[in-house]
Amino acid sequence: MKDRDVKLSPEHPELDVKHMGRVTVRRGLAPMPPKSFISLRIDADVLEWFKAQGPGYLKRMNAVLRAFREASL
């Protein structure tokens, strides 16, 4: 499917960064790979912005990184 084939409507708007943390992409029924625990240094203003979006900011950060990775392939 191409981007031009997608029909946007008020009920189905374009995906926004605010919704990234609520989206889970799964291909088929394959299990999700386990998460890794790391220590990561983030600029204070970036971290505060993610936290200001509400609970689940770590999930949203992971979703943004995953989206960047997918777009880079």
Question: How is this structure best summarized?
Answer:
It contains two helices and no strands.
**SS elements, strand count:** 0
Structural class: mainly alpha
- Helix share bin: 25-40%
Major sheet summary line: none
Sheet-strand content, in percent, reads: under 5%
Radius of gyration: 15 Å
Question: Tally the helices: what do you get?
Answer: 2
Label the overall shape: globular
What is the mean predicted local confidence, pLDDT? 83
Helix-strand pattern: HH
What's the quaternary structure here?
single chain
Unreliable segments (pLDDT under 50, ≥5 consecutive)?
Answer: none
Measured distance between first and last alpha carbons: 17 Å
Describe the structure.
By secondary structure, this protein is an all-alpha fold. The chain has a domain of 51 residues. Helices cover 34% and strands 0% of the residues. The protein has 2 helices and no strands.
Quickly list its features:
mainly alpha, 2 helices, 73 residues, 0% strand
Layout of secondary structure:
Elements: H1 44-52, H2 57-72
